From TrEMBL:
PROSITE patterns noted in UniProt: DNAA
Residue ranges annotated for the AAA+ ATPase domain, each copy included: 145-273
Keyword Transcription regulation: no
Region (Domain IV, binds dsDNA): 329-451
Subcellular compartments: Cytoplasm
Gene3D superfamilies tied to this protein: 1.10.1750.10, 1.10.8.60, 3.30.300.180, P-loop containing nucleotide triphosphate hydrolases
Domain Chromosomal replication initiator DnaA C-terminal: 357-426
Protein known as: Chromosomal replication initiator protein DnaA
Length: 451
């Protein structure tokens, strides 16, 4: 069965029966198969947001349905094609008979900008201050300040936010300016379809007529000779006529694996600004801004705890906040530190870090209460020992997800039901004891940061 024709329709119909009408109409209805090479099926989607949704919510049923229709294993790759936006191009040629293959269209446009990616919604800190200032300067005087502007940094640090904020401000203050935002893989897709459909004259006319060109994740064009060549030509055409170019990448220009060294040289003509992981004050400000945007009231100690356990990625940071607030809403509970600790176990250790040991938890608690570690495991029920011991057991359970028997062994061979009782008592106290909440917050932060 032709997977690009009848097979595709059959698979889509199968998926339609398994998702809501809103999901199908909003996301699945508009995707199209582009090519099948060996076992790789390339599927065009209208935006980055659509691709993210499909990856999270529909990849598995769609691949299964396509494999059933094709009668063989398939790999599926989602690539962004662009919703056509007017870039001020002469369209008189459309009245002439077209020699392009049937179904081809002049869709070399710009991906829509995210409405929240504005300067007003960007939290400035020491880690991104230079990049933010440069982006604002470019937005005020495109083509005259820092051209090109090259922003680089890790995933989820705000590069795309700043880039799109430039686009929003230019469109607001200079609506006659033609702004185009594309990702590196989208540009690659446009090059591929231009070769396939023999549409390079249209491709170049569109890309060479932009006033402000925002290119996200440039690393995705690396080592693709024809794509690099077309990017080089578009870059030169815009730069030489004073148009603004803004580029983002996950690495500095000198580390890009490009085939044409002239590209790296051109990236260094303007300003290169890095965006580093935010410090804890900036992370807390980001969470407070997010809570305000969502109309949520989140206690300061919860903000601090989340900022401590999700230190390097803003998306993970905001995701952790949403998880806590969702848990509170769904379970009918107040947002509290105990709730955050309970539901953020999978966020508790940053990828690549080593989690603290039970021994480290015991030492941290003993130091806080001015005790010796041995006192926490001693057979005594003295009040000044019982609470710290219970707290240490609770932290070992909540932060490390250690089993009750393992915690019991580490605390002098006690019965595991003693550990269960300790964890229950601390949870009960946390619901009403603000001082204990502060102690847990401080100890958790110190243990996660290794201090």
């Amino acid at each position: 069965m032709d997977i690009l024709g009848e097979g595709w329709q059959r698979a889509l119909g199968e998926v339609q029966s398994k998702v809501s009408r809103a999901a199908f109409e909003g996301w699945l209805k508009h995707i199209k198969p582009v090519s099948l090479v060996d076992n790789l099926l390339t599927v065009a989607v209208p935006s980055e947001f659509a691709r993210d949704w499909l990856e999270r919510r529909a990849r598995r049923p769609l691949v299964r349905a396509l494999q059933d229709a094709a009668g063989r294993p398939l790999k599926v790759e989602f690539v962004c094609t662009q919703m056509q936006l007017d870039l001020g191009v002469d369209t008189s040629a459309k009245s002439q008979p077209s020699q392009r293959p049937r179904g081809a269209s002049d869709d070399f446009g710009s991906t829509p900008l995210h409405p929240r990616y504005t300067f007003e919604n960007f939290v400035v800190g020491n880690s991104n201050r230079l990049a933010h200032a440069a982006a604002q300067a470019v937005a005020k005087s495109p083509g005259r300040s820092y051209n090109p502007l090259f922003l680089y940094g890790g995933v989820g640090l705000g590069k795309t936010h700043l880039m799109q904020a430039i686009g929003h401000q230019v469109r607001e203050h200079s609506p006659q300016q033609r702004v185009a935002y594309v990702s590196g893989d989208t540009f690659t897709y446009h090059v591929v379809t231009s070769i396939r459909d023999d549409r390079f004259s249209t491709f170049r006319r569109r890309y060479h007529s932009i006033d402000v060109w925002l290119v996200d994740d440039i690393q995705f064009i690396a080592s693709r000779e024809r794509t690099e060549s077309e990017f080089f030509q578009a870059f030169n055409a815009l730069y030489e006529t004073g148009r603004q170019i803004v580029i983002t990448s996950d690495r500095p220009p000198k580390e890009l694996q490009v085939m044409d060294p002239r590209l790296c040289s051109r990236f260094e003509w303007g300003l290169i600004a890095d965006i580093r992981p935010p410090d804890i004050e900036t992370r807390m400000a980001i969470l407070e801004r997010k809570a305000l945007q969502e109309g949520m009231t989140v206690p300061k100690e919860v903000i601090h705890y989340i900022a401590t356990i999700a230190p390097s990625n803003i998306r993970v940071l905001e995701g952790a906040l949403i998880k806590v607030t969702a848990a509170a809403s769904l379970l009918g509970r107040e947002i509290s530190l105990a709730l955050a600790i309970e539901h953020l176990r999978d966020h508790a250790v940053d990828p690549g870090d080593h989690p603290p040991s039970i021994a480290a938890v015991k030492k941290a608690v003993a130091d806080h209460f001015h005790l010796e570690v041995e006192q926490l495991t001693a057979r005594t029920r003295a009040h000044n020992i019982v609470l710290p011991r219970q707290l240490a057991m609770y932290l070992a359970r909540e932060l490390l997800s250690s089993s009750y028997p393992e915690i019991a062994r580490q605390f002098g061979g006690k019965d595991h039901t003693t550990v269960m009782h300790a964890c229950t008592k601390i949870k009960e106290k946390l619901a009403s004891d603000s001082h204990l909440q502060a102690v847990v917050n401080e100890l958790s932060a110190n243990l996660q940061s290794g201090s």
